[in-house]
Specification:
By secondary structure, this protein is α/β, with parallel strands linked by helices. The protein has a 6-stranded mixed β-sheet with strand order 6-7-8-3-9-10, with helices on both faces. A 4-stranded antiparallel β-sheet has the order 2-1-4-5, with helices on one face. The chain contains 7 helices and 10 strands. 41% of the residues are buried. α4 packs across α5 and α5 packs parallel to α6. Bound molecules: adenosine-5'-diphosphate (2 copies). One adenosine-5'-diphosphate binds next to α1. This is ABC transporter related protein. It comes from Thermosphaera aggregans (strain DSM 11486 / M11TL).
Amino acid sequence: SEIIKLINVKKVYRVGSVETVALKGVSMSISKGDLLSIMGPSGSGKTTLLNMIGLLDKPTEGNILVEGVDVTRLTSDQIADIRNRKIGFVFQQFNLINRLTVLENIELPLIARGVPRNIRVKKAVEALRLAGGDESWLRKRPSQLSGGQQQRVAIARALVGSPELILADEPTGNLDRKSARLVVETFLKLNESGIAVCVVTHDPEIANCTRKVFIIRDGSIMSVEEPDKDKCIL
Ligand code: ADP
Ligand code: ADP
């Protein structure tokens, strides 16, 4: 069953009098348990597409359906509520807050939902374990951890609210091969537990670990390819 469906989504950025057509009318859907990747050259619209799927920005034209409901008709608060319940995000730069501890970073999505502290801590510890992290990190600041460790904390934060879908934008772009492998292993494990995963990547060795590769060029999906499993980083 479908989690999210994009119908003819067009995105135009306007900066002053300059218009950039970042997406030309993209249709795609993500179903429960999917494991997808999006590849394409720099500037082709990958991040914009991920932002549309993640309900982080509104399309200029077209529709985005979540469980059949057209979110383009909802208010920003209603969209934020759907996003917080259904989607976890992982970014290339980790996007952790360094004045907070690792525990506080992971708890953040639950604070936004008003979950009581004892439950937040329990869920944060569990999420960090699922993401391949260690409890000894909980009281540290993100900057005291390696890049690979910080990305595992970021994955824990993405996981903590029990999302149906994890969206990752170049999650291994700043990592060495060993850490990249750990991130991919974690995504596959989460996928096996039923969470849909969609990864934007430049790295064919990452895309080849997924089950479907969307190739995007110049704001359009050019093709959808089968991965070459023998060329997965694992
Ligand atoms: P990719 O992730 O494939 O590098 P992006 O989705 O970031 O591509 O960008 C697609 C196009 O849209 C590019 O031409 C980029 O410069 C432009 N773009 C992206 N975000 C913005 C923005 N916030 N304002 C103006 N132009 C943007
Ligand atoms: P990526 O790693 O996906 O290529 P970018 O460097 O293209 O990321 O974009 C980083 C951020 O800058 C994004 O939030 C994007 O929307 C924004 N951005 C990209 N291109 C432009 C642009 N031409 N004008 C304004 N903002 C942009």
